Amino acid sequence: MYEQVAHSLLNKILDRLQPDIQKQDLRHFYTRLGANFYAIHSLFSHLYGNRSDFEQQVVRLVETMASRYIERDEELRRIDKAREEDHNWFLSQEIVGMALYADGFAGDLQGVSSRVNYLQELGINMLHVMPVLKCPEKASDGGYAVSDFRDIDPRFGTLEDIRTLSQKLRRREMLLTLDVVVNHTSDQHEWAMRARAGEQTYQDYYYVFDNRDVPDMFEETLPEIFPETSPGNFTYDPQMQKWAMTVFNSYQWDLNYSNPAVFIEMVDVLLFWANRGADILRLDAVAFLWKKVGTICQNEREAHLILQLFKDCCQVTAPGVLFIAEAIVAPVEIIKYFGEDAVIAKECEIAYNATFMALLWDAIATKNAKLLDQGIRNLPDKLDRATWLNYIRCHDDIGLGFDDVDIVAAGYNPKQHRDFLVNYFTGVYADSPARGQPFGRNEKTGDARISGSLASLIGLEAAIESGDEARIQASVNKILLLHSMIMSFGGIPLIYYGDEIGTLNDRSFLEDEAKAIDSRWMHRPKTDWAKAERRRQHGSVEQRIFDGVQRMIAVRKSIPEFADFNNRELLETGNPHLFVFMRHAPMLGNGRVLVVGNFDSAPQSLALEDLGNRGNFEYSQLRDLYSGEAPRMFKSQLVVPPYHFYWLSDARA
Ligand code: OTU
């Protein structure tokens, strides 16, 4: 019955499409529209069905998809078709990513183009260029306060530079990831300016209120995202004489997705960037897309419906393009961004594995894998056609977003344990080698997050100052250990620029008034190319890290067991310092690789016979695929040196 409603509406819409659209050869478009329209119609009517202009809005939506399809160039359409045929392509172990700021990494987009060789030298074949769209110079939130969704900020270059970069990457079989900041705009965006000038149409694009009544209702349950720099969730605009909802910074106005015009505008923006050659779109802050009084306004069911609708629409016009969900939320919530109530991913194919990231840092601070093991065990299995983005650091703070229940199960008190971690990484304890700083400390709740570069947090900065070679080597080993985890866990490893050469905290942000209040800038470095050059100097810290990561990437690409098909099994070892899991290759008979990481500063042992019927590990000649050598053994015990990892194979010995 509902299918028939959808069919007849679709027929009506096709008749009503503008003549220049009707004239085009849209066979592939119509096939996909037909296949997806029932879902699109259901979701769209669920969200907007009670409006009197509902049908008109659907026509506009379809016209938007059709226009962007017409504009999509032949080469991209060919890639779309190829990816439809090979629809698991992105689960491959051959993909390894890096995220970077264009200006920090290489000055601007042309600079990035000229440094592609460096990325390839390391083995990177997926490049996430962080926001390069127009944004105010100071109130920019590192590019996440966008004032024009369709133009590049002159500081970074031009649209032409993006075209050149995307073509260059494609020729080298590298993927391009770009951001679309879907949740909010800068207060300098045209829509906000027109809202401010009094245009109702654009005030309806945002959550705008005449007085504090509704804002006060919201505030009863809304947490603060940036409590120090931007307390509260609403900002008074003197010109408009109204309050705008601003969950992040006071200059970032939240978009109102209960207005279908906003949804359609943003579909258009997504497809605009798909057509500029983005293979993957990172959707920022997706947990926040729907606001409801009486809730924390995160992870609402409608936020998921909006994402499903984005996906269905994108699938019609640009089916080869993937979404990354940036939802830094509780473990059970993150997983829902692959698609709620679905078997295969129906929202975002890729999601930031913030849980794993935070747990890895826990293991570093505690020197054991108790909570890491516990937290990963409780992470639900992913849907099919979904994969993690595994990372150690990114441009944001580290939030300790694991579950209190898991903290208790690991034997700690949640409040005390979180305090311990923040204190450990922010240098409160004299014997901690970490050099981070607190971020987003909330005096009301006592919460805090952590800023700092990987190398400084791990102890490399302190070690270099001490001049103690043993400490330096231990830091290098820890950096490699963490990378070995994100490379083997299952999913796409996303390296953060600078980490491959051990970049330390950058304190220059303190001299810039606009940045000094936001400690995240301490880990958004300008690449020091003289330092990067030292990767060629045998024995330098840079060489030790770069070569280690480079080798890991090359070896990862050759291990089919590391592809991501829910083919990971955590193993109990009885040794809390070790994190141990088996990777299987379901497609390849009984291939398996045993991953072992020692988070302790002392050597640890693993009794292979205790692994039970998990391959022939206790009998075979084992080989560590990373080093190419046999691992250290004592009788039947595997010996794992401090901060060491193994990728062990029994079959290929
Ligand atoms: C994202 O951040 C971006 O990565 C940040 O750089 C932006 O400041 C922010 O959105 C606003 O655009 O929304 O779902 O703890 O982890 O704000 C999570 C801070 C986000 C970030 C959080 C995150």
Briefly, what is this?
The chain is an alpha/beta fold.
Task: Give the key terms.
25 helices; 25 strands; globular; 653 residues; Immunoglobulin-like; alpha/beta; five-stranded antiparallel β-sheet; binds 3-O-alpha-D-glucopyranosyl-D-fructose
SSE blueprint and pairings:
Elements: H1 2-16, H2 19-22, H3 27-48, H4 54-71, H5 74-85, E1 97-100, H6 102-106, H7 109-114, H8 116-122, E2 126-129, E3 133-134, E4 148-152, H9 159-171, E5 175-180, E6 184-186, H10 190-196, H11 200-203, E7 208-209, H12 213-219, E8 234-237, E9 242-245, E10 252-254, H13 260-275, E11 280-283, H14 301-317, E12 322-325, H15 331-334, E13 350-352, H16 354-366, H17 370-377, E14 387-391, H18 404-409, H19 414-425, E15 437-439, E16 449-451, H20 454-458, H21 460-466, H22 469-488, E17 492-496, H23 513-516, H24 529-533, H25 541-557, E18 568-570, E19 578-584, E20 592-598, E21 604-607, E22 623-624, E23 633-634, E24 637-640, E25 645-649
Parallel strand pairs: 1-2, 1-17, 2-5, 5-11, 11-12, 12-13, 13-14, 14-17
Antiparallel strand pairs: 3-4, 6-10, 7-9, 8-9, 15-16, 18-19, 19-20, 20-25, 21-24, 22-25, 23-24
Helix pairs in contact: 1-3, 1-4, 3-4, 3-14, 4-13, 4-14, 13-14, 16-17, 21-22, 22-25
The protein binds 3-O-alpha-D-glucopyranosyl-D-fructose.
3-O-alpha-D-glucopyranosyl-D-fructose binds at residues 141-142, 144, 181, 225, 248, 284-285, 287, 326-328, 395-397, 399, 449.
